[in-house]
Amino acid sequence: MKLARLFWSLGSILINGIIGIYIYMMSQAPQGKEERYQYINEHWDVFGSHWKVELLLMTLIAVGALYFAFRTQKISWTIVSVGQLILLLTYPFMLGGYRNTPIELAVMANEMATVVFIFGNVIFFTGLFLLYMKDVHLKRWLRIVAFSLSGIMLVVFLIVFAEVITWGQALAIAPLANIMYLINAYYGFKMTLEPQENS
Fold first, then answer.
1. Could you give the number of structural domains in the chain?
2. Cα 33 from chain centroid?
3. Enclosing domain of residue 29
4. What is the C-alpha separation between 133 and 77, in angstroms, rounded?
5. How many Å apart are CA 148 and CA 152, to the nearest integer?
6. What residue spans of the chain are helical by DSSP H?
């Protein structure tokens, strides 16, 4: 139980730092597609290692979520777990599709990774939305913040998935995702694990 909480909370905290580092790394890359993929390959030791660390942290979050789903028997945790497992599928596309591949294949791998990432987040934030809707572990004001943020994130990822806006436009809400992960980390230490049959 303590290990599952540690996995969920530690993964949620550290993924914030990893995301920030990735944003900085990509800000240094050229804007053109060919130049960008060439830049990634020239710095593959950095990018490849970064994605492997990110994969590890996302796996820790998934393990924690799965444990909570089995222990609490709550559908919200089950949905969070499924979303997190879908998100893990993003990384093989990046780790296997970017390195020393033709530009056409790299672009295809990127498109596939993006679709999986967006859909995984739709499911993940649906679970969090349901979880925080009826939560009893957080203080009321923090539960409202968590419920609201997860709802906003869900709506944004839904409209990106529906191609109403682009993924690039949606990146404006990245700070909200950072706050959401920090709340998730805190929640991991506050929750109790009695089985329940509702959300």
1. 1
2. 24
3. 2-190
4. 12
5. 6
6. 2-27, 33-42, 44-72, 75-88, 90-97, 103-133, 140-161, 167-170, 174-190
Is 137 a member of any domain? yes
- Give tens-digit pLDDT for 114-138: 999 999 999 999 999 999 998 989 9
Phi-psi region at 73: left, alpha or beta (left = phi > 0; alpha = psi -120 to 50) = left
Q: What gap in Å lies between CA 140 and CA 30, rounded to an integer? A: 45
Q: What is the 3-state secondary structure (H, E, C) of 20-71?
A: HHHHHHHHCCCCCHHHHHHHHHHCHHHHHHHHHHHHHHHHHHHHHHHHHHHH
Residues 144-178: tens digit of each pLDDT: 999 999 999 999 999 999 999 988 888 888 889 99
Tens of pLDDT, residues 46-77: 999 999 999 999 999 999 999 999 999 999 99
